[in-house]
Amino acid sequence: MRFVPAFAAVLALTAACDKKKDGDPAATGGGAAGAADPVAKGTDTAKGGDTKAGDTKPAEPPPALKPPKAPEKTGVLDVELQEVDGGWKVLTPRVSQFFASKPTVQRQDAQTPFGDTVPGAVAMVEGGDRFAGLIYIPIPKDLPYDVPKGLKGARDGMLGMFDPGYTAKDEKSKLGPLDANHVIAEGSREGHRFHVEAWIAYDEAGHSVYGLMALRMPTDLGGLDKLVEGFSIRADAKPAEEPADDKKPAAEKKSK
Question: How far apart are CA 35 and CA 156, in angstroms?
């Protein structure tokens, strides 16, 4: 699907960064290792403990989990990849997302309507007619971000991949512990029919936008729940930065 990277870019690069009226800008945890491959054609369940009638052979114990390898830098923002038992984790300073195969990570920057550059990264896994990806947009600290407007813009940008006549609905959901908008859509592109689901959320502590997305054929929707289960806040997540003293509420300043 040659338009998949473009689809990822559309969602990744839609950020609502507004100016003030005066013109000045105001453990490795997560991801169950047993999560299903988001691009696999099926999800087989383990059958190692089954025995035939009359067969007294004891079941073999499951193999020990392989220890995770050290994270490796991708050279894209502060995103790292870590090989773990059963797959790979995409790591940002606060988030972990599990994929069963190694993702490719690309830099995707955008220009706001005011000319500011908003950095972005996308980690993608593609196989056959399946695609999954994680969008990461760390909003610059000195660039105010209108969360409702930004998340709606991401949603509308994603739907822009379809030809006219698509159907879409929104549901309140969760992406790990983050409140998320779950977008479910079907439509056509280049003569093919596709089903798209995305969970778009804002991490206030990290001042970042995340978008977890999947593109499938309408008859092949298995495993989407496992994809979402692979997202979590890291046990060693970088804490939120304290605001500068001149930006703290007056009551908090007086308490010092």
Answer: 29
